[in-house]
């Protein structure tokens, strides 16, 4: 019987084996989440969220967000870069709400929206711009308690608080401060003051 012949490359392979095993061990110890995500106290972090908002079992809106942080004990989702598309009884799109941040409450289905908030009617002739509002699901209404601008064909309204439906059909301005003629398509991105 002849003994196996170990060439020079076989010896190099044997010497490299411990280094390779050490590298594999180090790789498995690395965390997959960033330090920012590890610092959050959220129960879950969801990316690319889409959910139906219903009332009496019927879908009346679809909420889409880049990221959602779930807090089970508090019963809410914190949302980033969200879009809510509202639908009417016929299933047609009636309005769109966008904002930088928001909170969805599990128990009520209400959504608070903050930062560069904009609501547009599906036909595009009405637009409301503000920094903060609340969507109350039980009555399918929007409530604002901060400065806003409402653009309608030939009319621009400003105020400090409002109540409206998602279609901007019935907007009640509670403290109007300014009304003027104007074209909402020409308004650009004017912000409320």
Describe what you observe in this structure.
- Strands 1, 2, 3, 4, 5, 6, 7, 8, 9, 10, 11 and 12 form a 12-stranded antiparallel β-sheet that branches.
- This protein has one domain (45-186): Lipopolysaccharide (LPS) transport protein A like domain (lipopolysaccharide transport protein A fold, Sandwich), CATH 2.60.450.
- It has helices at residues 8-29, 35-39, and strands at residues 44-55, 58-71, 76-87, 93-105, 111-121, 127-136, 141-144, 148-152, 155-159, 162-165, 172-173, 176-180.
- The longest helix has 22 residues, at 8-29.
- The chain has 2 helices and 12 strands.
- Residues 183-189 have low confidence and may be disordered.
- It has 193 residues and is mostly beta strands.
- It is globular and about 50 Å long.
- A hairpin with a 4-residue loop joins strand 6 (127-136) and strand 7.
List keywords for this structure.
193 residues, mainly beta, lipopolysaccharide transport protein A fold, 12-stranded antiparallel β-sheet, 2 helices
- What percent of the residues sit in helical stretches (DSSP H or I)? 10-25%
What portion of residues belong to β-strands? over 45%
**In the CATH hierarchy, what is the superfamily?**
Lipopolysaccharide (LPS) transport protein A like domain
Which fold name fills CATH's third level, the topology?
lipopolysaccharide transport protein A fold
- Secondary structure tally, helices: 2
Major sheet characteristics: 12 strands, antiparallel
Our measurement of the CA-to-CA distance between the termini, rounded to an integer number of angstroms, reads 94 Å
Shape: globular
Average pLDDT: 80
Count the beta strands.
Answer: 12
Give the helix/strand class.
mainly beta
Write the element-wise H/E pattern from the N-terminal end onward.
HHEEEEEEEEEEEE
CATH class: Mainly Beta
| Domain tally | 1
């Amino acid at each position: 019987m002849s003994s196996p012949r170990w060439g020079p490359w076989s010896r190099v392979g044997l010497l490299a084996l411990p280094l390779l095993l050490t590298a594999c061990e180090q790789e498995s110890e690395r965390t997959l989440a960033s330090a920012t995500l590890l610092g959050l106290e959220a129960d879950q972090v969801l990316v690319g969220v889409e959910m139906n908002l219903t009332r009496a079992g019927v879908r009346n809106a679809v909420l889409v967000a880049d990221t959602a942080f779930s807090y089970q004990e508090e019963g809410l989702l914190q949302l980033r870069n969200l879009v809510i598309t509202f639908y009417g009884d016929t299933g047609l799109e009636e309005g769109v709400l966008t904002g930088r941040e928001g909170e969805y409450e599990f128990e009520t289905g209400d959504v608070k929206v903050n930062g560069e908030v904009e609501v547009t009617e599906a036909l595009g002739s009405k637009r409301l711009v503000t920094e903060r509002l609340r969507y109350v699901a039980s009555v399918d209404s929007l409530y604002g308690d901060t400065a806003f601008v409402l653009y309608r064909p030939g009319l621009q309204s400003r105020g400090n608080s409002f109540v409206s439906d998602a279609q901007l059909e019935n907007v009640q301005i509670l403290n109007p401060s300014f009304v003027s003629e104007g074209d909402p398509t020409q308004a650009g991105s004017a912000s409320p003051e």
